[in-house]
Amino acid sequence: MLQQRKPITVGDAVQRVMEYAFQEKKELVSLLQAHGRFLAEDIAADHDVPAFDRSPYDGYAIRSVDSQGAASENPVTFTIVGEIGAGYVFEEEVCNREAVRIMTGAPIPKGCDVVVMLELTHTFEENNQMYMSIKRTFEAGTNISYKGEDVQKGTILIEKGQYINPGVVALLATFGVDQVPVFRKPIVGVIATGSELLDPSDSLQPGKIRNSNAYMIMAQIERAGATVKYFGKFSDDINLCIDVVKKALEEVDILITTGGVSVGDYDYLPAIYEAIDAKVLFNKVAMRPGSVTTVAARNGQLLFGLSGNPSACYVGFELFTRPIIRKAFGNKQPHLRREQAVLGADFKKANPFTRFVRGIASYEDGQLVAVPSGFDKSSAVSSLAGANAFIVLPGGSRGYEKGMQVAVLLLEDLQGSEWPWDNIKKSYK
Amino acid sequence: MLQQRKPITVGDAVQRVMEYAFQEKKELVSLLQAHGRFLAEDIAADHDVPAFDRSPYDGYAIRSVDSQGAASENPVTFTIVGEIGAGYVFEEEVCNREAVRIMTGAPIPKGCDVVVMLELTHTFEENNQMYMSIKRTFEAGTNISYKGEDVQKGTILIEKGQYINPGVVALLATFGVDQVPVFRKPIVGVIATGSELLDPSDSLQPGKIRNSNAYMIMAQIERAGATVKYFGKFSDDINLCIDVVKKALEEVDILITTGGVSVGDYDYLPAIYEAIDAKVLFNKVAMRPGSVTTVAARNGQLLFGLSGNPSACYVGFELFTRPIIRKAFGNKQPHLRREQAVLGADFKKANPFTRFVRGIASYEDGQLVAVPSGFDKSSAVSSLAGANAFIVLPGGSRGYEKGMQVAVLLLEDLQGSEWPWDNIKKSYK
């Protein structure tokens, strides 16, 4: 009955999972819906920005040569020959001592090479003609935003796989991408297991707990950018469970179960994996919490068997499932972002397994410092709410002390890491 | 025609806006919809977690006293008197040399004070009775998760105004909050101004540009957590504009216009504010980009007149509008999170106004370093896509050099700051 499980390292486990990474299909969404999605194509500039020499200010467009000799005691006067608002083009060429009233964003009229800000001019009328005078000289190019100075036509501005933030939206709008190619969101199914689980709306009963894992995981799936499909709770009948899993696999891209992966008699997952011919990639990882995390694959589809303990479940998702979701978006840094931090508390007890302590990473004068966010057991739920990082304490024969350099994995970060695992080992050997 | 505008400091401007801060009404959403919202009530633990002494592992529950004397050469044998899965209660009291097979999460039977992990036991059968033997002693309390060790009943776990992340969702589920009180999302209206604006789906035309600001701002509104209502582009007829603004104000909590706040002849906003009896809180801020940012109020409702330049528009939203949205969620740190960083590039040219350079904040060995994300003009659109921070360079008579300590405001952060402005001044005076 009791199988001996052989633990593998976290890096190895992640690598085995990543062999099943896949890329989602493209779909088009309107620009208004694109924020928060991931681009499915490189976006190149289809024109220069600005597309024409334009005025960054309100003022008067003139020829620099005409300003020569202007001074406080020697104002130079220009005839105002027209006015040009943003969106309009002044068609004639501007000549000697002529000025055109120009608004922010309007194209520079032919002949002009300076915009004098409105504040530096004096306007007056004589015989039904408007004039403008200035009291200083201007160099050619003053206050001109040149064609292409921001972006040159053909530049690849945003690469496939990039997260669409508000700045990216601005670029997409600028280049006329009103139907945005994004990666479809993978559908991640969730099934909860455990006879002890009550729904959040149920009253407490002796020996039972409310099902927090399924709801937590669904929020984690959303945070990672995927779509959730909830299949509720497993029945106690293993044959029914097998049917539910088979059916769920037809409706989702990835399937997560919470609980049922320990070595207990009621832990059905190993039997289910066997029954549906899924290949178990690993069923023991040298990590705390979450050492029983199990991942299996069937016809290329991943089944994540996360622990039933809240903290272990949370960690298992972020380490193993999140990168598969991000990779489906063509993202080149699908893993949690790894950074170095100063440890803000002692962890003197050595542990043979690598620990992922739920922590708070904050800054002290710009230096990242990480402290545990609360009660640190795999069953803990309270430490998750405040956590924005995992503190990575590699397994070994010694503990860790306040002030030591440690790796942290940031949870609420959009950037990610390409591969945080090798380095973790390296840093500590 | 040309009014002289008096610039005020950014801190003063933000303060004037924050006097109009308001708190949204509460609404209930299902737990599945709660991720990403802000809690509208403190959440206290309605029971201990764990709610009962429970087993963190699969194994056997025994009395520690019965393990005394057990050793490799002297195994101690227990009679297995029952088995208990998670969710069930073992009703009898466990006596001398009795053991109960126990699963992860199950309540500890009366009398027991140790759980021996399955791996450390040996089971066998004799005369139709199952037995279990161990080869070492265990201290009382070994492998027991005690009632209340994670959370004690009555503890306030999550405060009103807190962002609901996956860990918070887990807590809400644990405490049976299946209908979650959250703050309603404020509705933020957006109107674009400018005769030069084309829709993103339009072909380019001489002198015109595509409307990137409105789409960018809508994504920024979403990122801040509010709901967008887009009213399209202003007409060229000021009377029609006035009607649109009046009508929009009836449908939204906050109204944003982009463009039309400069001193140009076609900049309608000042006239509109006057026509609708809105009080202008300021129309010039000592900042770059975005010095023309104008904010007005009418019957307690805020009208944000953001610049028509993309970078200026972006900065104006994040500094002035975002905190109003976050404050509507009862959030205590509604402003962009301010941290200290090492400047990664020279900015030698002094500027009398405080500059907000669009930048990338990254870590070098855990130390925050900020470099500009690209072309730095108020009209730039390319530098926004890569930016995750503003580098704050206070105005004055000197420039800044690589390696200096500067303040940064983080754009993609969930934590925020209570009031980043006083310190900025202090740090540099």
From TrEMBL, chains A, B:
<protein>
    <recommendedName>
        <fullName>Molybdopterin molybdenumtransferase</fullName>
        <ecNumber>2.10.1.1</ecNumber>
    </recommendedName>
</protein>
<dbReference type="GO" id="GO:0061599">
    <property type="term" value="F:molybdopterin molybdotransferase activity"/>
</dbReference>
<comment type="similarity">
    <text>Belongs to the MoeA family.</text>
</comment>
<feature type="domain" description="MoaB/Mog">
    <location>
        <begin position="189"/>
        <end position="327"/>
    </location>
</feature>
<dbReference type="Pfam" id="PF03454">
    <property type="entry name" value="MoeA_C"/>
</dbReference>
<keyword id="KW-0479">Metal-binding</keyword>
<comment type="function">
    <text>Catalyzes the insertion of molybdate into adenylated molybdopterin with the concomitant release of AMP.</text>
</comment>
<dbReference type="InterPro" id="IPR038987">
    <property type="entry name" value="MoeA-like"/>
</dbReference>
<dbReference type="InterPro" id="IPR005110">
    <property type="entry name" value="MoeA_linker/N"/>
</dbReference>
<dbReference type="InterPro" id="IPR036425">
    <property type="entry name" value="MoaB/Mog-like_dom_sf"/>
</dbReference>
<dbReference type="Pfam" id="PF03453">
    <property type="entry name" value="MoeA_N"/>
</dbReference>
<dbReference type="GO" id="GO:0006777">
    <property type="term" value="P:Mo-molybdopterin cofactor biosynthetic process"/>
</dbReference>
<dbReference type="Pfam" id="PF00994">
    <property type="entry name" value="MoCF_biosynth"/>
</dbReference>
<dbReference type="InterPro" id="IPR005111">
    <property type="entry name" value="MoeA_C_domain_IV"/>
</dbReference>
<dbReference type="GO" id="GO:0046872">
    <property type="term" value="F:metal ion binding"/>
</dbReference>
<dbReference type="InterPro" id="IPR001453">
    <property type="entry name" value="MoaB/Mog_dom"/>
</dbReference>
<dbReference type="InterPro" id="IPR036688">
    <property type="entry name" value="MoeA_C_domain_IV_sf"/>
</dbReference>
<dbReference type="GO" id="GO:0005829">
    <property type="term" value="C:cytosol"/>
</dbReference>
<comment type="pathway">
    <text>Cofactor biosynthesis; molybdopterin biosynthesis.</text>
</comment>
<dbReference type="InterPro" id="IPR036135">
    <property type="entry name" value="MoeA_linker/N_sf"/>
</dbReference>
<keyword id="KW-0808">Transferase</keyword>
<keyword id="KW-0460">Magnesium</keyword>
<keyword id="KW-0501">Molybdenum cofactor biosynthesis</keyword>
<keyword id="KW-0500">Molybdenum</keyword>
